[in-house]
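Late entry, evening session. Most of the bench is empty. Finally got around to the prediction I had been postponing all week. Sequence below, unchanged from the version circulated by S.P.
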Amino acid sequence: MPITVNHLSKIYAEQKAVNDVSFEVKKGEILGFLGPNGAGKSTTMKMLACYIPPSSGSANVGGFDIITQPLNVKQNIGYLPENNPLYYEMYVKEFLGFALSVHSPQSTVHSSQKIKSVIDLVGLNTEQHKKIGALSKGYKQRVGLAQALIHDPEILILDEPTSGLDPNQLADIRNLIKELGKTKTIIFSTHIMQEVQAVCDRVIIINKGKLVADDKPENLQQLLGEEILIEVEFENVMEENELNEIKSIYKIDKRSSTHFVLHGKDSAQMRKDIFAFAMSKNNPLLTMKQESRSLEEVFQQLTNKNETL
């Protein structure tokens, strides 16, 4: 496995920032790392990048131990920290040349081609001759991503790489991450659920330092249980208390006098009962459709619980 994490913990005084976390990431896999602020995402990524040492546990990144072989780990990963530290007085192209020389101090062969290739890849062509301090937040984020890619690492650890990007830039970087995931192993954190569903092969959710979910995005959506939600819209006004006559539903969410979301357990029975109810009330249905549960709902449910799954 390119990344194997075993019982990793980080303790600050009385606070367990990361508490006994274990997971693996396969080669070519894009892993989304989710959690509320303060959950331990960035701390975990810092430990994997050998930026801070763990209090206990171990991890192997690219075949190297993060405790005994930190330099080897750093040589084989690209790391974009949460706060994206940059030298604002340096020019973009100059900074990327510096970053490349840090990773490959003995080699200057083809360095200009490597810099140009990465600049093209992340869309910094028009900004490459500007000082970093003069760039917008979105372009600064691209510079940070470029420095993580400059030495062509096999593993990328990206802490909120799309932070500060506009919708067009978001789409570009998402597509880039997806393309890079064909040949590289990627861990990236984000708060954007659509991003996870669009890009990730697998999702880990961490809450209060503990791992609470680890699965494919589509599988996580099933964690909300067997509850069925059916959205209905009637042609005419419907009193909410009349809907209680439908025996297969147990909860009603009113959106308007004609528009409701009905909760139950048996989709087929619910639809049959709803149709029969509408006929009995002589109030035609304009809409009847089953709602899918979003990954955002899963995230909210898991991170609002004190217990782990």
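Two things to note before I forget:
The radius of gyration is 25 Å.
Residues 205 and 299 are 7 Å apart (CA to CA).
Will write this up properly tomorrow.
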